[in-house]
Design a protein that fits this description.
The complex is a heterodimer of chains A (204) and B (324). Chain A is α+β, with helices and mostly antiparallel strands and 204 residues long. Chain A is built from 7 helices and 5 strands. In chain A, strands 1, 2, 3, 4 and 5 form a 5-stranded antiparallel β-sheet that branches. The radius of gyration of chain A is 24 Å and the shape is extended. In chain B, 62% of the residues lie in helices and 1% in strands. Classes of the chains: A alpha+beta (204), B mainly alpha (324).
């Protein structure tokens, strides 16, 4: 039986000293990511569910109502030629959960949690590393522009096409709960309307 | 002072370089590999909604490495192929067949599939972080040289020292404990004591998950238990405090030698993840498969072998310990 030649990617097994050096560098990277709030896979500062601001003065909780049928039916679209249609989950060919998030959150300008994590209560070191002034937002984007852009691109429409979608609509109900009785005291309805702007063509 | 430093260095060296044998490493590879065969379908089950031959969905926010590579839309056929790759690579990893190649393919396919899932609506999930680091450490270890098809195929006869087997497993333990600890630090850092105060954070989360699909005549379309629990502030406060206690306390596991205490503590954490899934649909349900790294599987394997009529294999490593 022959001894196998040293396997690939195994410099650390040469000696304990090599392993110690690796562990120091690895530890530095992992801990460093936590210290300066890096959240890029495979590094993280584990920010999940960390953001919360106490609202004891408020007498109510609000919960957006996700109607799966409504979300899967999709956005009400108006095309450049004036025609109207629906852009459904099947049209976009995306999973159901992603469709809810696009429909009930991004359409209303609400960012994903990673933006909330990235912007919440930045300490001095995290701001310094990113070159941010106090109070300056770390991450922000125009979700409505992105949404109408991705819908058009997915369906193969470009600016100037008669079928180019110039307006998207989404509707959302919010149940307002009484903090004491947990009963729904009010239902608030909102419609998100995203209109295509000519200025956005530059970034198409 | 130098005496203390020398003592500390000695203790760290003992911690990282002792406690496990080559067989422990091999068995851990098999068990975690088999666990991952369940983990991947659970994490990517939403991909069943993709229609092959359907639209190539553009991403609302490509994950950072997709941005760097210019990948801005999904091709369902490629995603399906990568899912097959991830499952085959996991099987190869578990069986120890071209182990290192399997782990590399596994990591690359995880990057891709996670990228697809997280780029669709911009929500970046964190369920593969611990898995990634565990796999990375397996990649750097000699896990493919024992209880593996590679060892049978290539006839490895080079002895794997206990320190070579121990340091990857101990590093996995440290990472897992640090992961939970960092979670607690993040909560304090961002929200301070608001996170615990009155249990409101937990209350809001439970209510959100219970009522997000609607509520009719006071009955939520989601979890009724979560809805009921949200109405007990003392319970929500207790849950918030216990979350902090276990997350901050995880590093203590590194110095607990008693098997049963470890098992009790990790069962509690597993219960935490199960509850989160049942009450709030948080999909860390199967993450507890990685808790196997806190136990030496060799004595358990030997006991099973002797019960089914095979004597324990002779080892060159240290005397078997139930915990490393």
């Amino acid at each position: 039986m022959t001894d196998a030649s040293p396997p690939l990617f195994y410099p650390c097994s040469v000696s304990q000293k090599g392993v110690v050096r690796f562990l120091l560098i690895y530890g530095l990277i992992v801990v460093g990511a936590v210290v300066i709030r890096v959240d890029r896979f495979p590094l993280t500062w584990v920010p999940m569910y960390s953001v919360y601001k106490l609202k004891s003065e408020s007498e109510t909780f609000s919960v957006h109502h996700k109607d799966k049928k409504q979300a899967y039916k999709g956005f009400r679209a108006t095309h450049a030629d004036g025609a109207q249609s629906w852009v459904s989950r099947e049209d976009l060919n995306i999973p159901g959960r992603n469709m809810w998030r696009l429909y009930y959150q991004r359409a209303f300008g609400r960012p994903p949690p990673k933006y909330t994590h990235a912007n919440a209560n930045l300490d001095r070191l995290s701001r310094w590393v990113r070159g941010l002034a106090k109070g300056e937002t770390n991450l922000k984007t125009n979700w409505r522009r992105r949404l109408i852009t991705l819908v058009n691109r997915t369906l193969g429409h470009a600016p100037g096409d008669p079928r180019f979608i110039v307006r998207l609509e989404a509707q959302r109900d919010t149940n307002i709960f009484d903090r004491e009785s947990f009963e729904v005291v009010k239902v608030r309805s909102r419609t998100a309307v995203i209109k295509w702007k000519t200025a956005w063509e530059e970034r198409w | 002072m130098s005496g203390r430093v020398t003592r500390l260095r000695g203790e760290l060296r003992d911690f990282f370089f002792t406690g496990f044998s080559a067989e422990s490493l091999g068995l851990l590879r098999i068990c975690i590999g088999l666990g991952l065969l369940l983990y991947h379908p659970f994490q990517f089950e939403s991909f069943k909604n993709f229609s092959l031959g359907g639209a190539h969905a553009y991403y609302v926010e490509p994950i950072w490495y997709f941005q760097a590579l210019g990948i801005d839309h999904n091709i369902p056929e490629i995603t399906l192929v990568m899912f097959v790759v991830v499952m085959l690579a996991t099987l190869g990893f578990a069986l120890g067949f071209f182990t290192r190649t399997s782990i590399v393919l596994l990591l690359l396919s995880i990057f891709y599939l996670k990228g697809v899932r997280d780029s669709m609506s911009g929500d970046v999930h964190h369920r593969y972080l611990v898995i990634f680091h565990v796999l990375l450490l397996f990649l750097l270890s000699r896990c493919g040289q024992v209880y593996s098809l590679d060892s049978w195929r290539r006839g490895f006869r080079q002895r794997i020292e206990a320190w070579e087997a121990s340091w990857p497993i101990k590093t996995m333990q440290v990472y897992i404990c640090f992961f939970y600890f960092a979670g607690a630090v993040a909560k304090l850092r961002v929200s301070g004591m608001d996170w615990i105060d009155g249990g409101e954070r937990i209350q809001k989360l439970l209510l959100l998950r219970a009522a997000r699909f609607g509520i009719e005549d006071g009955v939520p379309a989601g979890s009724t238990i979560a809805f009921e629990m949200a109405q007990i502030p003392a319970l929500c406060l207790a849950l918030a405090m216990s979350t902090f206690v276990f997350e901050f306390g995880m590093p203590i596991l590194l110095v607990v030698k008693n098997v049963w205490l470890r098992l009790l503590a990790l069962s509690g954490v597993a219960f935490f993840h199960i509850s989160n899934y049942v009450l709030a649909s948080v999909k860390f349900l199967l993450l507890p498969i990685v808790f196997l790294v806190f136990f030496d599987l060799k004595p358990i394997f030997d006991r099973i072998r002797s019960r089914v009529g095979f004597p324990p294999a002779a080892t060159d490593g240290p005397p078997p310990l139930a915990v490393g």
